[in-house]
Structures
1.
Amino acid sequence: MTILKHPFAECTEKAEVSVPEQAALKGGTTLDRNDITATFGLTNGGTAGAIYIYIFTFLGFGMAIVSMAEMASMYGNGVLRLKRFANEVVRKVRQPREDNIIGFLNYVTGWLCVLGWQAGAASGCYLAGTEIQGLVILNHPDYTPERWHGSLIAIALVFVSLFINTVLAKSLPSIEGVLLLLHVFGFVAITTTVWSLSPHSSATEVFTKFNDGGDWHNVGLATLVGILSPTVSLIGPDAIAHISEEVRDASKTIPRIMLAAVGANAVLGFVMLVTICFCLGNLDEVLSSSTGYPFIQIFFNATRSNGGATSMTAILIVLTFAGALSNMATGSRSADYYQVHAGRDIPTNAILATTVISVLLISISFGSTIAFNQLIALGTVALLCSYMGSIGSMALLRIRGRQPSRGQYFSLGRWGLLVNVLALMFLALAFVMIFFPPMRNPDLESMNWSVVIFSGVLLASVLYYYSGAKAFYIAPVELVKLS
């Protein structure tokens, strides 16, 4: 029997990862998804709700990222992180059957991470594909859009992402540098243009007008349902941890990248959100845009030009696709066992598997008008659940009076328990609310079926583990040779 080792188990060369470039790659995802998911937030919450829930989400999610940054500083090697946490929790809390608990925690969390990043890779391509379709609608009024058109474009982009992650893998650092420039200059160009040319709403209207488009009969609940938008915009700074084996001085570099990403992009995302809210115009007109994306309509209303709206949207499409590239790279390295293609130093088989899974997930959109929200929600809740497992381990140690190992470069110190608990409270709230459908009393087509897919994957993984996988499953750390 051939045992597949982690691809970086024997690597001695470490890549130099630029903090600005990694933060910018995440930033591209924040900017474009902040615009794209605005539909959900504006429908459930309105302009005031979207702004306030964004601030709330930043504070709550910031606690989670800070907690994970501390973990990254403790255990820079991402492959070993979960195993070490499980060992530490079991050893210090003195739970019975140590090996079973360690294996189970590793197994379930691994499934959740893989599910989250696989869904992220699919949703990024789906977003870019349907944005392209939105531009076709804008520029060709006689075009009759079909749901499957956008889906096929998205599938084509999956294969483009496959090509870049395999054939052009060695050029990814250069691509990140270009994306950094596009991110910065694109942000300035879009915000300046929209602020300069769009009619502005009053501050009173923006900061006090709520919307209950989902017919929840409660503005507070409607605003909480809209938590999907800011959560999707801010999630993902931990992606770098999944390639920590390729990073030089990971215990120091990774926390810096995570904190830089969540801080810088939260600010940029907030500026973009406020820009949208002030320059929105007629909310009903924007939400009912034939392009399918309110931000395309906002761009057109500002410039009164198809060319101008297309140019600004093209920037977001590139950044959206950049996020898909990153998600495919991360998702392919989240699997427990995979081989490295000889001479390439990349997990070719895992990247191919991610491609197949992305195509299958995008295929959901052939039968559902809200497939995007389902894909986004599915990936988001899976990642949130994996965050809760790791942060919960830290909190459990501290509650029992057993302080975890201190981070070499970044430690929360005496504030650790408070930060961990606040992070868990926010993550639990977001985990529940993201499963809500976009409206009350949805029909079969508009229902948020991500809860069914998530529960099915989780149940299948647990059943499979106890029905047989438990006997032969080996945690990845057992296969890694430490240098």
2.
Amino acid sequence: MIQYFQRALIILIIFSIGSTVYLYNYPAFHRCAFPLQADTHARAPFRLLALGDPQLEGDSSLPNPEDALFPSVVSLWEDLATTASVARWSQVTRQSLANLFTSDLPRILQSYRKRLDLLGNDYYLAHIYRTLHRKLDPTHVTVLGDLLGSQWINDQEFESRGWRYWQRAFQDGLRVDDELSGGIHVGILGQDDTWKRRIINVAGNHDVGYAGDMNNERIQRFEKIFGRTNWETRFRLARRNVTNDTVDLPELRIIVLNSLNLDTPAVDEDLQRDTYGFINNIIVASRPVEDETTGTILLTHLPLHKEEGVCVDSPFFDFYDGDEGNGVKEQNHLSYNAGKGILEGIYGMSGNPQAPNEGLGRNGIILTGHDHEGCDVYHHLPYHPDPDSRIWRAERWVTSTSRLNKTIPGIREITVRSMMGDFGGNAGLLSAWFDDQGQRWRFEYSTCSLGVQHIWWAIHVLDLVTIGLASFAALGNVYNVGV
């Protein structure tokens, strides 16, 4: 019997070690890597780890802590104090005991299970971030909105989840300093290694609300803990990375945009004006449209408009009724006009051959969140004899033929699949580099998925069981030796 136990334990130890090695090195097993430069096959100077919609839940999903732990026991003492007959005492006692075992205890066990689930989810998210950060060495990190699970939580709960975000899920990560996100900061790409630890947080609807419920208080508490909602930073290549001395230093623009109040009606029109004012400032401060040495990466939460069937989420809007201000209550995408404003405003695309850069606009890429399933599309403006009849269209990137047509404007938008366990613990890997021969920035994207959270749980439970059994066996051997 002892021999069978020892053999089983050896097999368990081998399996436990193997699965743990896999868990902590899953990027290598899944062959995850940032795309290499197409021309030199060297590592790109800009490598963005993009994470979507962690949605940390919290105490709002747990029983009210002010409620009695055992309501049936409390009611029992109250009923006994007002009951005179012995028969009634017996009936009340039996009923309270039944409530204790059928209601109170299951509720308490469910409460502890939920607390354990929240703790495990925090460390599951942390495992994704830490492992990818350690193994793949990104130069920058972004979380594309819905950091938390609800915009309706009170300030105390918001701060509690904010603490869990920084101390558990993204431990060692840093909030982007207001000095960096105020105004336009220009740095040399790769010169400041602290950017590897800074988390570029994008505001999501579960963080600050949609246009119909976003207010200044929600924006302020988000910015206090996670950073500004609208800001821009720029990185230029060092001269040693550019072989052609006749060009200006290539520049990569990172634009963080709160797109949640671009559509109307908005409950706080001042906040909406601030967002549109920020967009106008971006346009004014941009290099000329025809300057292809600039690449623009837009980070925002809401995806741009797409026709039904292109992605999992179809176009959808819902609004509050008149008593609540008629504002936007929910939306899957930006409206067509709001998306058009981004494409034609920030990126300067028009399709007009008489416009700067022949209407093709600026070079860049767009990263969004919100749609947990993720999507990868190409927005383009097909030709039409009547310029006023041209309409923006979106096609799946992998099947798009329009992206091969260099005479019409277009840009890639990637909606990063959620990093939540139900969606496989996904992460996006974006590489950007300056093609000196083509004199423009190039962008390539890949993904890396850990798998559902049950894998993380199962391996850690297996490790605990293995350690426990191995310790028991070791103590047994010591005891036998002593005998």
3.
Amino acid sequence: MEANNHIALELLKKAHPPETASAIFTEKILHKPLYLRPTSPDPNRQDARAHRRLQRLRKKEKARRRQKPKSLSAKEKRIMGIYDIPKQSQKYETYVPLYRMWLGYIWEILGMVKGKQTWVTATAAGAKLVSADFHGAKLTVVRSKCVSTVGLQGIVVRDTKFTFQVITEKNELKTIPKNHTIFRFQIPQPDTIVATHDSETIKDISEEESGRNALIFELHGSSFEHRAIDRATKKFKQRNMTEL
């Protein structure tokens, strides 16, 4: 059917002038777009079955996350005593192997080898010792604002941010604050330690070598108030010691 003989144009001419009827016919009818429904589904769109399956999986995952137990807070751990050492385990002999293990660890850090003379300077050793782990070290309090802790000696069983917990030779667990406290520890030469786990042997050798070949260091607790895991990655800067 031609445009001039179109029935719609004839009806429009009866209601409008010829020019207006022609403009309306051209805009509304002749050039009107025709939208066709696609014969095939969009490949990017999921079908109803797959969509329902996905929704079920997401619902199960959300329910599983709700059932996961919540981790304990620091307060709850303290109340439950998770980090407390039982009374029957507070024995000095129990932690002597830990002390020997720490000696091997600190010898490796400082590059001290058995049968070989190694020069250890305060500048080189200080940077390594501040990042070291002191669990198992034998510390002695040489100066403190808390007079009752001066002279205490024991093996470190727990190194927290603000305290050292040590087991003394009297099988007592002592908590020593780091703030305003100076600790001393010594590192015997590898040649002076015999292969034994006897605590008395270690004690005698350490005291004998403390005035000769053992390396003696002092640790200022006020500048050491960091957890062991944080010290491993922390960069320490030299600063004046106002306590001295």
4.
Amino acid sequence: MAEDTQINFSVVDGFFLQSNSSTSAADFDYTRSNFSLIERSYETDSQCPADATLWQRFEYYVEKLNKSSPQTVRYKVLFLARHGQGDHNVGEAKYGTVAWNDYWSKLDGADGLTFFDAHLTDEGIKQAKVVNSTWKYQLTVPKTPSPQVYYTSPLYRCLQTAEVTFEDSNLPLRHPFVPQVKELLREAIGIHTCDARSSRSHLATSFPRAVFDADFAESDPLWSADYRETDAEMVPRFTTLLKEIFIADASTWVSMTAHSGAIRALLRAVGHREWELGTGEMMVAFVKGERVDGGKLAG
């Protein structure tokens, strides 16, 4: 089992602005930062065409790095996106965080808002369209590699966000958009109804292109009305998820559509500095996985 496998994860510093301690999240605009890739040279640049873009040179560097590494070591570039605004985000802003946590978050909905497995608002859909436009620019001008795999939380708002972002015939993706639903990629589990998921059959009907793991249950097996997962408890869950991906998935360029708390936990699992994403925002992390029990990693 991946949970029992020993893999050390770390962030490879010096490549993305969001991993630098000098970069502030408060005024950072991911849409105008070339996906935060730092302007620099690479030791493999002499092997690239003279007109290669910064992203093309980085892509070549990463691919050569993986090819030259032992089978116990793999590098992945994670495109981490937070879902667009949902009804629950509107609810928390409307009632205040304290009242939200104490009362409103436990309801299925109120005042015309639906909290259970919350859907995107019109504003949330607009935010996802901005991500789509940003990807379109990145793929065509700086030549950012398109994701090879598209993982998403099983919560409705994340599937919606991923669909609006990538299901676009005008988006020049090298690899077709097929959302891979991962149970462990969800937000903090418990109490808040917005973080309870819909049934597998409902999600499959709503998102017919989505692919579910064989053991993905029909009903939500994790959510509880009387206990909420802590931030500290989320980190082992995301470590397990990363282990599963590094062991089974040879993809280097990985899209993950998730939640604010989920992304915080994932960043902690790989030793990345704290970085808060607003609704509909994204970041990039360059991650190294090293298996210490001698087993192979995918790739």
